[in-house]
Design brief:
Elements (H helix, E strand, L loop, with lengths): L7 E7 L2 E8 L2 E10 L1 H10 L8 E12 L1 H16 L3 E5 L3 H9 L8 E2 L2 H8 L3
Parallel strand pairs: 3-4, 4-5, 5-6
Antiparallel strand pairs: 1-2, 2-3
Helix pairs in contact: 1-2
Length: 127
């Protein structure tokens, strides 16, 4: 039985990738799996929120094997929008394929990376 706290909102997939989105305790969670490159970036841009939406978004990339700069650029759009509006954005992953490019590109301030959803929520405090 599904509850509103963890209800599946969206599911999309393509050749070698998938995205699921759901709400969990006031946080919109986008779970990405597979490989994300230029060929996927336009579809990813269509699936992620462009305008006002939840005040807290987590992109769970724990099961992403590859993510290039075109997809990171797509993630920057909601991250910057939330930051400007006083919201929160975080990436969850320990995979070097995700954490390394974010660090090398200096995106950690806008897209902070945490090893788990609970760590991201804890960093936000009781907002």
């Amino acid at each position: 039985m599904s509850t509103d706290a963890a209800r599946l909102r969206q599911r999309s997939s393509g050749d070698g990738w998938s995205l699921e989105a759901h709400d969990a305790s006031g946080v919109r969670v986008h779970t990405l799996r597979g490989e994300f490159d230029f060929a996927v970036s336009a579809k990813l841009a269509d699936l992620l929120p462009a305008g006002p939406g939840p005040a807290r978004i987590v992109v769970d990339m724990a099961e992403v094997g590859y993510c290039d700069s075109s997809c990171l650029q797509v993630l920057l759009r909601p991250a910057r929008g939330l930051r400007a509006a006083g919201g929160r954005f975080a990436v969850v992953s320990a995979a070097p394929a995700v954490t390394r490019p974010i660090a090398l590109l200096g995106l950690g301030d806008i897209m902070p990376v945490y090893p788990a959803l609970e760590a991201a929520e804890a960093s936000w405090g009781a907002t």
